[in-house]
Amino acid sequence: MHYAIPSPPLEWNAIPLGPLTIHVYALWLLAGIAAAAYLTQRRLTRRGAPSDVVLDIVLWAVPLGIVGARIYHVLTHTQDYFYAGADPWDVVRIWDGGNAIFGSLIGGAVGAWIACRRAGIRFWSFADALAPAMLVAQAIGRGGNWWNHELFGNPTTLPWGLEIDPAAAMFPAGAAAGTLFHPLFLYEALWNLVGAGLLLALDRRYHLRWGRLFALYMVWYGVGRAWLELLRIDPTSDTYLGLPANSAVSIVVALLGIVLFVLRGRQHPEREESVFVPGREPSGNDEPADATTGGAERDGATTGGAETGDAEAGGATSDRAEAQASGSDAAGSADAGSEDADAQARSRE
């Protein structure tokens, strides 16, 4: 029996809607972005951030991330875009594939930094909340590579070999029709999902803040991407020091992650108490729902305390009144006793 992972028919890559064309590759990317935004929002709001702040950050980070991803891809695959007779519009045809995650990290980080400053949120607090969600988004986005018949490795006879249409642009020259390839898109998706679970477990156990969880994301993704790129054959990127550009950059990213983890840990050994920039904390009605509820509970406790205090004050007043009444009775008894003694003395005289 023949086992293999089929690829979607090439004609399914685009969905025509009148004058518009929806590219399925873009839908996978949008699904990944939506998942990352949702998960990041849940994580950040649990730490006290407003419920809509992640959407504001996404509106800055995503566009700049897409631009950065494309620029990085083009600059590391120059042989695919700059040659005699090349169509210069290929540089901007993002729907045909070719979006580098490292470029999106750079562009997205710039956008997130701008948005965080505007919202008064610590950039590293946002990055830590994003880290596991980012791996989930990347795992989902790799579905777009599968749909586009790309991101595969050397030929294989393993039962999970990937079928690639010989008519696909990325099909290796000289390979026979029916050749199966290592599904690198699937390997990376699984690597990312395992990494997301690991980061969540570590964060739950050690409460990694101040950018340290994001540093671990850099290490995990960098290591995984470095060895996967060595297996890739569609299309190969430019080389640096004998390594594909993506492998070389992945190694650098992993090393930077280690340095970032150590430095941020030394700079901030204390526990992170707030995701807000000092002086930008919300006030009054701007507090998150959880904080507002807590405040209401605290107000109730204060009110109850006041009522208790009033009761105690009332009791004290009653005690004083009784004491005064007793004192008055005692004084009256003493006066009566004096009058009787005087009467007895007069009678003896």
From TrEMBL:
InterPro entries: Lgt. It is found in: Cell membrane. Its main location: membrane. Residues 311-336 have a biased composition (Low complexity). Residues 271-349 are annotated as: Disordered. A 1,2-diacyl-sn-glycero-3-phospho-(1'-sn-glycerol) binds at residue 142. It is a multi-pass membrane protein. Keywords: Cell membrane, Glycosyltransferase, Membrane, Transferase, Transmembrane, Transmembrane helix. Pathway: Protein modification; lipoprotein biosynthesis (diacylglyceryl transfer). One of its GO terms (molecular function) is glycosyltransferase activity. The chain crosses the membrane at residues 20-41, 53-74, 94-116, 123-141, 184-202, 214-233, 245-263. Its EC number is 2.5.1.145. Belongs to the Lgt family. Catalyzes the transfer of the diacylglyceryl group from phosphatidylglycerol to the sulfhydryl group of the N-terminal cysteine of a prolipoprotein, the first step in the formation of mature lipoproteins. This is Phosphatidylglycerol--prolipoprotein diacylglyceryl transferase. It comes from Myceligenerans pegani.
